[in-house]
Structure formats: structure tokens, C-alpha cells
Records
---
Amino acid sequence: MPDRKAIHREKPKERFSYDPTRVLNKLEEYGRRILEEVKAGRNPYFDIPTRGLNNVYFDEKRRVIRMGDKLSRRYFLNVAHARKFMQTLLLMAYVKRLVSENKHASLREAYYANKHTIPGTKENTFEDQRESDPIIEDLERMMGVLREEMHLTADRRGYIYGDIVIRDGEDEFNTSKLGMGGWAVPGTVEHLQFPEINVDYALVVETAAMADRLIEEKFPKKENALIIATQGQASRGVRRLIHRLHYEEGLPIIVFTDGDPYGWYIYSTIKQGSINLAYLSEKLATPEAKFVGMTMDDIERYGLKNVTEKLKGIPPNKKGGPTGDYKRIIEEMNYPWFQNREWQRQLKMALKMGVRIEQQALANKSLEFVAKKYLPEKINNGELLP
Amino acid sequence: MAEAKQLFKEFKIQSVSEFFRRNAAMLGYTGKIRSLTTVIHEAVTNSLDACEEAGILPYVRVEIEELGREHYRVVVEDNGPGIPEKYITHVFGKMLAGTKAHRNIQSRGQQGIGISGAVMFAQITSGKATRVITSTGNDEIIEAWVKIDVDKNEGKIVRKEKHPNPRGWRGTRIELEVKNVRYVRSKQGVYWYLKLTAIANPHAHIELIEPDGKLIVFPRSSDEVPEPPVEMKPHPRGVLTDDVYRMARKTRRNTVKRFLIGEFSRISDKKVDELIEYIAALRLIKTVQDKTVQEQLYEKLAKGNVKAVLRSFKGYTKVVRQVAKMMEKPPEKLTWQEAEEIVEAFRYMKFLAPPTHGLRPIGEENIEKGLKGILKPEFVTAVTRPPKVYSGGIPFQVEVGLAYGGEIQSGFELFRYANRVPLLFDAGSCVTTLAARSIDWKRYKIDDPERAPLVLMINVISVHVPYTGTGKQSIANVEEIYNEIRLAIMDAARRLQTYLSGKHRKMAQVRRKKTFEKYVPEIARALSILTGEPEEKIREYFMAFIESHFAAKEGVSENA
């Protein structure tokens, strides 16, 4: 069968890399170093890459948001650091137990498991989950290890549907044979393996409603595609899954969101990573992802003008502006990865027209329009935005 | 002193006892508690002064024996130089003739009649003579019973005995029997008076035996006998008509001019010439009828335009010549009126500030010793300000001591002194109280001044302490004195503040250390899990590390 599609599976660029002993070794290494420092009469410390915007930059070559090299040193013998120092070690010990016992815990479980009153004081090791969560992020940055690799799971969100076989521990299943609801992506996808991949590409869909529509219209089967529903902003599990499917299995990634600043931001995070998780971009981001829609051009091309909605906020040329959606669009225009003709054109059009367009507005044509015409046409003709 | 002179006149006419009763307030004999304190005060002051002049470290023992209701025997014994036999009546008998009543000298005795007043008080209330036992350390001890001869205004020995002195005892012991007084351990009582006296006289060892037999010792905390004050020539601005009049009678100079130059400080030949012009000008101004013109002339004179004032009168040279003539007559011929004129002219003239070498402060070191020795505080500091001048010519000096914490009970306490003598009454109107109250103690880390364990002592030193009222227990609110007291307090308070913040630092250091120590068990457990080393060992490593870190930090700085 001649290859009539513009999109098809490529050669893998990364290998399955999950190795619990690596995490365990790192933990022990850090613990030993601390102990050596104290024995030598020196103030022990952790070097933790600083969080926040001022330690984040866009790597032009690899095209991802990356963490800078600014470090903050967390000492034991410093009134301002001592508590965090103790908390860091507490969570490190906890992670060691989790990984070596091959158990997983949620962030909240990690908080409760380590919260107790320090003997002889009225002080708790952790007063609040807001104290433990940042320490876990610190550990990720410090050791260059994913939270998931430490067996700490994030909230799960998102599901997939398509003709691929997944091996999850002792279970093995095809995600197109689990019913219309597909397979829910767990918090940790590190250990998953993919014995069989029978699709040409993965279509990442913002809304569950649209994903359900495509499944009902048998789009995955007809177009040989895997549907990944993010259900809003993509969770870490979904982003890691997308990354792995692309780099380990060579699946092209195509993103389909609403035509509004929020949808474009979802695309941006999948593609380049986010500022918050900049230190994980190399494991979470997929810079080769492409964007199919919704675009501003679609409005004209498919005659959708009457189903657009007005942007919220004040336009930049009006008094008090820009605010709301307008402000968001202008911010996005300044992102380094949107510095290309196509995206600048889209964003400028959005500002000029002052409207947004939802994925489901395509139902205005007909329910099957999106699955039969819109997507196949654009994808197979390679009408994708970078 | 005009008042005193007046009194003296009356005193001649009426009986001594009558005089005494009438002027009890001025002499310090009002109220049952205060009268007893005054008796003690006079006796102790005598002892301290005598020791000071003889360069002896004083040992003073006060004993109060209750003989009946409001009836006590007071015994004061010292190790002073003793009194030669022929001076006994002089010391204990002469009213208004004390050795320093009219000397221009900073003295403890404020009342003018001193111990003879106490003898008088005993005589009036109990009818008993005062028993004096004294020896100069020679081979005899003299025991004498002294009364005051009210007709002659003289002391009279009613009975005398001589005893051998084989051990060479030296000192004076006086016993007075007094009635109508009461011993109370209040802040106006004897106990309090002696305590405050001990603080201001750290070179003295003072003991008190209370009526119930309890012995209280205020030990000596300094071995340095203060130098006795020297007599200073009075400054023209600091004298009254009576002083000039009386001094003129006593002087051995030949002329008024020589008398003025010789007996006063800051008066030269040239100043006398100036004085002549001022007196002449004042005489002439007084002849002017028109009040407003007169006022203008006074103002001109106050500005120092004496020549211009003189020139506005015809034939002023004649008046000047008259005054000049007065300056050449013998001083004993100086009339009261002329003395008045001189003093008035002094008020208009400008003089150099008076010499201050006659002032004898306790000294910062000795104040600190005194406060430390008696109050046992944890912190003490003292400030002696340089001498200053008030109302144009009267030198004075302010000293302040500050004691904090230790055995001091909470509650702010002010100890007031004038020339080292504790002031126990009329605190409310005293300039020291006003100045102390005006300080914002919170600025000096005393958060709750009402409850802080803080003692503030203030000593105002001057030849003429400006007392309010006749009681001489409260210093007038003179601006210059008020300001000096404030400056001294603030200086001392700053040092206290530095001390207190140091204390806070130390406490913070201990807290800081705890901050680290409390985490050690948690850290040890975690590290034990991570590295496999025994928990107990890791704990030891960390504790040793904290210990060595803080030991190294001690006394240096604090960064941890």
C-alpha cells in the first residue's frame, strides 16, 4: 500500500530508560556526602537549582525551556535553612523506601507519611502539604530525577485510545479494545512499555468531548491514529507519555486545541515545556510536536464566522488594555518558540479579529465533519503549524 | 540668708526652744518618722564629714533602741578622729554657729545647725542630755553629758567623766534619747536613709541595729576616702545681700574695693571700676519718675550699655565719684543698703563662669561600686557630667547611676541625692523626678519601665542647691539642672541598652542552637536510612558539629 499520508511513524530517538537503581544510588550518594561533611566538621549543604523565572531560559538549539545553572545552597547550620534541610532528608529517606519496596505514593500520601511532631517540641516536621510539595520539586531538580521515577505520582488526568499495546506490570492490553472510554493515563508512565504500535501518529486533543467525538466517528481506526485526550492542560503523566511515544516509538505528535490563547498555551507546554517544570523539559517536552488547529484561518476557510466567540478583556488599543485574552495573546507573541511567520500571523489575526474559536464549533457543519473532513484534510496535506 | 538673720534676731529675744519649735520644718523636725531620720542624718553626716577631713575610712554604727511608746534611744558610733575635750561644747552646743554654716563650700549638712539641732531635739522631747563618748586615740576617753544652754545659746557639759584608754580606741559615740518619733522601715525611714547613704558613700561601712535587734550591714565597697571639699570664693552671681554684708564684717581687707577683689571670684580691678558705673547708673535710674522711661533704661543697662545710661543723666560724674568713694572706705563700714546695691549691680554685670574645682562628685567608679555593693545588680553604670553653671553664676554638677537586674526587685526606683545626701521627701516636685519621668525608657530597651528591675540614682552637687521650700528635700526645677540630668540619664541608659541588647543576643544564641539540635534526631534517622550507618552515630556527629560551631562562635559574632 503506497504511503499516501504526509504523517507517519519515524525512527525512535531515545530508548526506554527507566531504572530504579539509578534513583537509589543517587539518594545514597547525597546522603553519604552530607555525612562526610559533618564528620569533617563542615556545615553540610545541598545545592539546589533555583526555581522561578530568573533561572529559566529558552534553549534555541534544542528548542525547549530549560533550567539555568543558578544554585541555591541549603545549609544545615543556618537558621533560615535548617528546617528545610531536615525536610529534604526526610523526604529523601521516604523516597528510598518507596523505590526499594516498589510502591507508589501520591504527593498527599508523601505529606501524611512524613508528618509528625518533632520530639520535645510543638513543631511538626511538615505543617502543610505546601511545605512538602516544593521539597519534592527540589529533589527532582537537585538529582535530575523525575518525581515519577521517585515513585511519587501526580494527579492523573487524560486518556488514550488507539491501536497500541501497552505493558503495565503484569497486564498487557490494546488501548483500542477497552471500550469507548479508552485507557486512563496513570500518574506515572515511567515503567510502561509498548510491545506493539500500530498507529501512524498521535493526535493530542484538548477536550474530552472532542476526543469522544473522534472515537465515536471511528477516526482512530480510519486514520490509523492514537487519540490522546489531555482534558485541559496536559498532566505530567500525559506529557511524559507524549514525550516517550515520540522519542522512544517515533510517533509524530499533532496537537488539536481550541483556537484561543489557552489552547495555544496547552500546545506550547506540550511542545516546549513549562516554566514551572523547566528542569524537566528534557523529559516532558516534545519540541517536534505540530499544531493542526484551531487556527484563525479555519474561520474563513470553513465559514465558521457565526460560531466564533468574542475574546475577553480589553484590546490593546483601547483604554486600560490590554487585559484578559488580549494580554495573554500578546504574551504568547513574545514567546521565543512562537517567533515564526506562521504563528505571529495567527496571533496577530486573533488580536485583529477579536474572536476565539472552539474545537466543537466544527459541529456547526455536522457532527462527523471534524473526523471526516477537517482533520484528515489538514493532516494528510501537511497543513500544520510548527 | 536674710531669713536666717531674721531668725537669729528673734532667737536672741525668744528662748532657743521656742525658736526651734517655730522653725522645726526648716530644720527637718516635722513628723514622727522624719524627725528620727533627721536625728540620724545629723549624727551620721557629722561622722562622715569628720572621717573625710581626717582621711579615715569611716565605720559608722547606728543603733536604735525602743524605750517606750514613740520613745527611743539613738546611738551613733564612728571611728572618726574624735573630739578634743575643749571642742565638745562647740560641736554639740552652738546653734547657727556650725563650722561651715556660712562657708562657701559644698557640704552634706543642709540644715545649718547640724548635730546641735539633734541635741536640742532630744532635750526638748525627752528632757535628757546627750551622752558623748569620744577619744582622739590618746590615753583617755572622755564621757560627757551635753545640753544646750538656752539662755546663752551655748553647749553646756552637765557632767563629765574621764576614763583610761588602754587599747587606744579612737572615735565618737553619741547617745540621744528622743520622744515623739517613730521607727518605721518605710522609704522615709532610717533604714532607707542609711541604705541610700551607703550607696553614695561606698567608702563607708555602715551598720544599723533596728529596735527589734536586727543587724543590717551596708558594707564598704571602696577603699578610697574622698577628698574633702575645698572652700571656694563665692561668685558674684551666687551671693545675696546678707552674704556680702556679713563677709564685709569679717574680712581683714582695708577697703571695700580690696574686699570685693579679694573675697570673690572673678572680680578684678577693672570689674570694680565697671561695678562703680553700674551702681551709679542704678542709683540714677531710680530717680526717674516716668515708669516707661525707667523701664527702657533698665533694659539698656541689662544689655551692658552702662556708659549710654550714665550719659543720659546730667552731672552723672558726681554720682560716679560718690560710689567710687564708697569703694575706698573700710569694709566693716559697708551698710546693708550699700551691700544691696552691690548685689543688684552684680545681677546686671557679666562675669566669667565660676571656678568649679570646689565641687566634689562621687565619681563614676565610686557610684558603680556603691550601687554594686548595696544593691547587687547584674548591670551597673554611672555618668558624672562636667560642671555647669545655673542662673548665671552658680556652679553645679550632675551625676547619675543606673543599676539593673540581679537582686533588684522589679519596679522602677529613683534615689535622689543633693551633695551626696539622700532626699527622702517631696519627690513629686523634685527636678530629678521630673527629668527621670521625661525619659522615654522604651527607647533604651526598657519595655515596661514601671516593672523593670531598675534603680536610677541622681546626685545634684552644688554650693547652693536650689531647694524648693524650707524642707530642703526637693530640688527646684531649674532648666539648666533639668537638662543636665536628662543628658546624664540618657547617657547611662544608652549603656544599659547596649548591655541589654547583648543579653538578648546571648539568649538568641541559645535559642539558635536549639533550633538546630531539635532537628538532629529527624536528620539522623533519615540519614541512617539513606546511608545505612547507625542512627546513634550520626546523631553524635551532628551534635558534636553543632557544639564545636557554637563554641567557636562564642564571644566573636553570630552568623549562624
---
Amino acid sequence: MGLFDRIKKAFTGEPETPETEKYDAGLEKSRTTFSERLNALFANFRTVDEDFFDDLEEMLIEADVGFQTAVDLTDSLREEVKLKNVKKPQEVAQVTVQKLVDLYGEAGEHEDNTLHYAEEGPTVFLFVGVNGAGKTTTVGKLAHQLKDEGKSVLLAACDTFRAGAIEQLQEWGRRDGVPVVAKEAGSDPASVVFDAVKQAKADNVDVLLVDTAGRLQNKVNLMKELDKIKRVIVRELPEAPQEVLLVLDATTGQNALSQAKQFNETTDISGIVLTKLDGTGKGGIVLAIRNELHVPVKLAGLGEGMDDLQVFDPTKFAYGLFKGLIDDPEK
Amino acid sequence: MAFEGLSERLQKAFSGLRRKGKVTESDVRDSMREIRLALLEADVNFGVVKEFVKNVREKAVGAEVLESLSPAQQIIKIVNDELTATMGEAAVPLNKSPHIPTIIMMVGLQGAGKTTTVGKLSKRLIQQEKARPLLIAADVYRPAAIDQLQVVGKSVGVPVFEMGTDTDPREIVRQGLAQAALQHNDYVIIDTAGRLQIDEKLMTELADIKEIAHPNEILLVVDSMTGQAATDVAKGFDERLDITGVVLTKLDGDTRGGAALSIRKVTGKPIKFIGQGEKMDSLDVFYPDRMANRILGMGDMLTLIDKAQQNFDEKQATEMADKIKENTFDFNDFLDQMAQVQNMGPMEDIMKMIPGMANNPALKNFKMDPKDIAHMKAIVYSMTPAEREQPDLLNPSRRRRLAAGSGRPIVEVNRMIKQFNASKKMMSQMYKGNFQGMEGLMGGGVKGRLGKMAMNSMIKKQKKNKKKRLKHAKNFKS
């Protein structure tokens, strides 16, 4: 059963779970904007012509479904409309949504959205990303959640560069009641991570969260530094890190592609944390990430609160995103 | 990489099109789509793109194509001009208060780079104006935000006013301003917490702070990697606070930075600074043209266009020089002339045909011995190409070489040059169509007119030969 059908069934079938509702609430703005826009677009055109496709393409891009996705999708629709000689936008509407959903479903076929933990010994999560993406906040929020689950957590303050970064993580550690391994500002982050891994092994900690300094992906030396941090982890714990998570600001545009690509080259990222998703108004970015980056989104930041970091469930997300679109044409 | 500059896109669209004198309707249609996609790919907001493309389309249709520019290049030029114009003025200075302190307020989303920019701006003010700023730490929400500002303040040697995280930011700003007044600080920079433009409570807080502080400058700090959301963010902050300027951060990354165009278009507010580095002195003034190049990734193409423009000028210059050359008389022409004369038959007969010619003082020494002509040719052939074109080069040492080369005495070489100079003087007059002073030479009446005609045809033929020769030489060179 395709994702499209599953979502469709969800509307007619079982009641929504509380978790789904939480997604709904967090993405309230995303969903309305996306579906409203698409519906408005279909209502706006009487005939299917070049202008219609241009507008559709723009609408998709505006909804952050990703540049390439938008262009590919529109191109394939153009072909299909020509072949089937469709004249009415409403007929295209159904196909568009179905294609969008199926694309999302197909691209995510073998996607693994769960966080992986070591079978024994400490699990290490390494957080990487550009400046201001929200790495430290994510580490802080995740530590809180893991602690609540009854896991023992250790934080490593490897951002020794940015002013106040160590203090920021220490503050999170204090709030969460979690120890933080830190050295003074300006010290070698690799040495911090070395100490942290050693301490994690000695104390038999469940999860070690490694916060790193933000770096732009085109800074070769900083990327090498990141490589070194990872090497130190692998040397001390051959199985680790279980996850290398790229923290990505949901408002980022096409540069997200470049970020994913270059961080992947250096550290082999295993998943994405999508932050500030509550502010974008366009959940489409998730589609773009799936279709163009081929890296699973594992966590999503949906608000400022400690509990607003969510384990990402793509189906629930799609459910929220396409809600207003799938039942509408049937009315 | 999905990134592809506008240049490549346009060239692809134009490949297969023949070079035309004008940008046609269909050229424009094809290229507009490419421009649209290129801008969208560079993260320019779709609404902004739409309007921009409309403007370019109007300008592009019927635009005269500069010689040596292809239609693609021409359209890139139009796009670049329009983009630069849209991007606004360069280097807009900070608004200043007529009396101290000048109050600057930084606002923006979380993680845009407000605190870092505060530090960079302080450093800039200190270096350029010997300013004594005070920083107010009004971010009470994010953990350790105050610590960050304190570290930044320390690194640039600027005091930070803070009241911990338990006081309301409004109160912090109020007391901070009081302290600034007390200490006679000439600048006050307020670092506020990052917030979403849709967060009603926090936006109200900013509006209140604005009310309290009456800032001269409200700078919206925006991450240059922002995508389509940039317009919403800029609009949200601008509507609520009426910002006075924009700072674009993280431009040292590999983002195209289309957000700059979106923000500029939506708010109409100048982009005052750009942050491009992690060091405290990496805050620069904004240059619209550089940003335009960056967004479309067509820096190379523009250099090329510039070069084409230069080449075009050069081409004109060489054409001009050719024209001058055509109207000068050098040894090549002299050879040509002699060959022509030789072709006409025995010299004496020709001279007899031209009435009055024998009386011409300039040609008095022009002895009509066929061998003479051969000798003269030998001398000219001994010259270097440069010497043939520039007879002035012939100094005594060169003349001695010519004599040796042609096997003629130096006296003969000198005489030949003298004859050449006389010939040159006459020819330059005739090139200009000026037969004045030569009326008598040709004689009057029908005979005279015939002579004139013969002379004219000879000059015409000579000019033609010369053109041919010049063209040949050029082809040979290239």
C-alpha cells in the first residue's frame, strides 16, 4: 500500500493519536500554508497552460519542497497532461498531490528514521552543522529527553571556539541534571572529546552527546578539525559514533544541499535534525531533504520548550502536510 | 552539485541560436525561464523573482546587441544591471543621533548571528571612530547568551551592561540606557534574543523596547543561507518594528545569498553590512554589484563581457589605425606603385603621355631606366617589414645595411629615399583628392581631365592593393 493510500485511509479510519495531534499543532502553520496555497492555485486557473505550470512550479518552490523536486515534478506533470490531454486544473490537482505524496513515499522507502544505540557500552551521538543552526540547543533538549527515559547522559562541550558556547552547554547540563565534560575556551576540541569518551567509558554512561562548533561547510580547515574529532571517537570506541547528526535550520534554502553533501563527505552523516521547523510555515523542506539529500530526518525541533524536540515520524508528518489536500478533491 | 550559474544556463538556452543583431522575442522567452530558475535556485523569493523577471523582460526585448556580445551575454548584462539596481545603494552609513548616544538595536531569528555582529560592529566603531560603545545584554532567554556577549565584549574591549536572566528585558534596556547616559557612551548597542517573527509575545517585547529606547538604528540580522522564508522574516520584523537596515551574516559560506535580494525588495531597507568570517574584524560594507554577481554565479561571464567590450574598443582602434595606414604612403606602396608603372610599359612612353609630368620638380630625378626600378626594388626588399611601414626608421646605420643588402652604393640608397619622400608628399595630397598645385601638371582642357581620371584610377587601384595587403598581413598574423 502506497503512502498516498495509507494517508487517505487515515482520514476515513482510525482516530488520531495524541502524537499525531502534537505534530498537527507544531506544524499548524506549515500545513495550512501548504495545502491552502495548493488549493488556491488550482482554484485560480481555468485552463491548464504554461502559466499554470509556472505558477505551480513557483508554488512548490515557495513551499520549500526543493528546487530540483519542484522542477522535476512540474516537468513530469507537463508530460502527463500533454499525453492525457487534460484541460481542467482540478484533474491535475489530484495527480499533483498523488505524485507529490508518492515521490515522498518512494524516496523514503528504505529510510531509517530511528536513532541507533550501541548494544553495549556507551552510545555516541556527534552533532555537526553550520553556525547558528541550533546544535547546542538540540543537544540540551535531547539530553533532557534521554534523561527522562532513564538513560544516563554525558555531554561533551567541543565548541571551544564560539564565545559563551561552553557556558551555554553547561547551563543546559545544569538544567537537565547531566554532567558536562568541558575544557577552557580555545582548547583543542579533539582533546575534549577524548576526555569525554574516556569518562563515558569509565562511568559506563549510556549516551554521550558531542556538541561541536558551528562551521561553514566550505571551510576546509574547520572540516578537518571535525574529521579529527570523529577519528578520536572511532579510535577510542570502534563502534561509535552511532549517529552523526547534521543539525539543519529549517529556514535554510538551497544551501542545505551543499551542507549535507560536504558534511557527509567529512563525517558521513547518518541523519538530520531539523530545527526551527515551527517557524518556517512550510513543511515542504522535509520533502526536499528526502528527495534531494537522501538522508533521513531523525529529529525535528518544533518549538522553544524542552519537550519540543520530536523523534521524527515521516508518515505522521506527511499526514499533517497533505491533510487538507487529499480529502478536499473528494468533497 | 545542483548549482549552476546563470551564465551556463543562458548559454545552454542560446546554443543553437545564431548570432543576431537584436535580442528577439523568442530569445527573451527562453532566457526568462532560465533567469527565473537561476534566481529561484539562488533562494530568491518566488514573488520577488516574478517581478524581477518582468522588469528584465521589458528591458531585454529589442535591446540593441552590442557588437561582440552574444545575445546570452547581452541578457546577462541586462540582468546584472537590473540586479545591481534592485540591490540598492552601496555602503549606506549608520544612522546617527544628533546627540550622543546613538542607539542601535539588533533583532532577528535565533542563530542568525546577532551577538557576533554586535561584537564586530563595536570593533568597527572603535577602529573607525574611536567610539566608546556600551553593550546591553537583553537576551535573557537563551542559556549563556549573556556570557557570550560578555566574552565578545571583552575580546573587543567594550563594557557590557547586564542584569542576569531574571529581569525583564525592557527593564534591562531602561537601566542600561541610564548607565550609558551616566558614562557618556557615544554608542549603545542592544543585543536582543532571537525570536520568530510570528511569536506575538516576543515581538511585543521588541516593540516595547523600541518604545523605550527610541533607537536610531534597528538592524535586522539575517542568515544569508535563508531560503524562501527570508521574505516572511523580513516582512514580519519590518512591519512590526520598521527596521532601518539589514545585516547579512555567514556570507563566507558557499551560499548564493538570494535572501539579500528578497529582503531588499520586500522591505526596501538598505543592506548595511555583511558578515563574512568568524573573526571580530570580518564585518564589511555591502556592495550591491558583488552581491549581484554572487547570486547569479556569473562573475566569470561578466569579466568576459567586460573583456568583449574592451576587445570591441580595441577593434575600433585597430580599424581606425588601418584607416590611417591606408591613407599613408610607405615603401610597400612605393613598390606597388613601381610595379604598376612597370606594368604600363616603358617608362618614357608613359611619361610622355602625361602632359607636364616631366616638368614636375618632385619627379625630376626619377630616372626612367628599367634597371633603376629593379635597383630601387632591391633596396626596398632589403628593408625589414617595420622599415617598409615606417620609413622614418631609416637612420644612417640602417641605410648602410640596405646598401650592403641590395649591392648598391649608399648614395643611391639615399637618393631613393629622397625620391620616396617626394613621392610620399605628392601621394598624400592626391589621397586626399587634393590636386591643387597640380593643375598645371595635368594640363588644361579635356586632356587635363583625362589625365586626372588616369591619376584617380591609379590611386584607386593602389588603395585597393594596399587594403588587400593589409588584410592579408592581418590574416597572416592571426
